[in-house]
Design a protein that fits this description.
Pfam families: Acyl-CoA_dh_1, Acyl-CoA_dh_M, Acyl-CoA_dh_N. By secondary structure, the protein is of the alpha+beta class. Helix content is 51%, strand content 15%.
């Protein structure tokens, strides 16, 4: 791995630590986890020891107090090792922990953040439902007042880490009395997953990210106290959207790591595989493809690091997050698809590593907002800015 001159010495060290971990601990296990669709729980204690679950949390809550770029540089390398492990880390670091940090009261922060930072509690985030994905504000699962607490009912879909997490950050409709539909009237709740009435449902059988758990969850008269509510009962959707801005950078880093892994395998293979008496890299058609793969990966990295630096400077920007996620995810799908072509028939075989990378890449175009939704955000914010000017 060559030094990246845009990173500080400390960031280089973080990158190297994560790369060594990915190379030694993830790469040797990833294919088997994928084949068995088995959750990679065995590796999480080691990741916790290395601090990977508290990178963005302040030291006062037992986190490492690092910045967004430091975190993304590590996440990119974890994704290079195994994209399923990367999404476990990404959801935990970007969504539930950040929502509690930003919108929780001091009691909630002191209770939940230190064990989450130490990796003793795994977090999950639940916005989607069967009928509401891109149009997340139309969600129906509800939280109704019950004395000074709440009673929760309804079903949520596609919860990453859901079956394994000890804590769920869930968005529920709180306006059932007033029937004010839409983005207002949604609350965010912190739910320990051992609360009676909380049930984990079906585990999805997925195309890719097969060692990441994706489940449905149901609330059946699940009663929680007032301490479960995060901030304002009407603003959970706003909190979720603002956290997804950082989450999308996490997906960008994940996509970049997948693309890099496919590229590394491709460069090696194209240098070794011979047809018509020469290495296939020497055919101009393939040489051009390799050049394009490399260029798109560097462009993804440029966007990602720029967005992360803007974030660290307090100038995080929803448009830049969307552009990063959009470009990096489409690059990952394109690069992994080209990698299969360059591997020829071997690329289509499970014995070789690139077909898994292709399967893992695809979902980066879908979750935390599809490519169409990212394009919508980019254009909408662009016009909003023009109106302001
Ligand atoms: C593996 C996996 C893990 C996930 N993990 C989580 C999780 O942890 N927590 C969570 O809350 N959710 C999670 N999700 C859900 C994910 O965020 C949604 O799948 C995603 O937001 C898309 O919603 P949908 O699947 O309902 O598609 P739909 O919203 O039904 O979209 C279908 C198609 O219509 C297009 N479309 C929709 N609206 C528009 C529009 N306005 N303009 C143009 N095109 C549009 C979409 O781009 C897409 O092509 C996960 C999903 C997957 C696959």
């Amino acid at each position: 791995m060559k030094r990246d001159y845009t990173l500080s010495e400390e960031q280089e060290q973080i990158r190297q630590l994560a790369r060594d971990f990915a190379e030694n601990e993830l790469r040797p296990r990833a294919a088997e986890w994928d084949r068995k669709a088995e959750f990679h729980g065995e590796i999480l204690p080691l990741m916790a020891e290395l601090g990977f679950f508290g990178m963005l949390l302040p030291e006062e809550y037992d986190g490492l107090g690092l910045g967004m770029l430091d975190y993304l540089v590590a996440l990119e390398q974890i994704a290079w090792g195994d994209a399923s492990v990367a999404i476990t880390m990404s959801v935990h670091n970007s969504l539930p922990t950040q929502m509690i940090l930003k919108y929780g009261n001091e009691e909630q922060k002191k209770k939940w953040l230190p064990p989450m930072a130490r990796g003793e509690l795994l977090g999950a985030f639940s916005l989607s439902e069967a009928g509401s994905g891109s149009d997340a504000a139309s969600l129906q699962a509800k939280a109704e007042r019950d004395g000074d607490g709440w009673v929760l009912n309804g079903e949520k879909m596609w919860v990453t880490n859901g079956g394994e997490a000890e804590l769920l950050l869930v968005m529920l409709r709180t306006d059932s009395a007033g029937e004010r539909r839409g983005a207002r009237g949604i609350g965010a709740f912190i739910i320990p997953t051992d609360t009676p009435g909380y049930e984990v449902g079906k585990k999805e059988d997925k195309t890719g990210l097969r060692s990441s758990e994706t489940v449905s969850v149901a609330f059946n008269d699940c009663r929680v106290g007032p301490e479960a509510l995060l901030g304002d009962p009407d603003k959970g959707f706003v909190y979720a959207l603002s956290s997804l801005e950082g989450g999308r950078l996490g997906v960008g880093a994940q996509a970049l790591g997948i693309a890099e892994a496919a590229f590394d395998h491709t460069v090696k293979y194209a240098g070794e595989r011979r047809q018509f008496g020469r290495a296939i890299k020497d055919f101009q058609g393939l040489a051009f493809k390799i050049a394009d793969m490399s260029t798109r990966i560097e462009a993804s990295r440029g966007l990602l690091y720029r967005a992360a630096r803007a974030w660290d400077a307090g100038r995080g920007d929803m448009r830049l997050s969307s552009m990063t996620k959009l470009y990096a995810s489409e690059t990952a799908v394109w690069v992994t698809s080209q990698a299969i072509n360059i591997f020829g028939g071997y690329g289509f075989m499970k014995e070789y590593p690139v077909e898994k990378l292709f399967r893992d890449a695809k979902v980066t175009e879908i979750y935390e907002g599809t490519s169409e939704i990212q394009r919508t955000v980019i254009t909408r914010t662009l016009y909003q800015e023009q109106v302001k000017d």
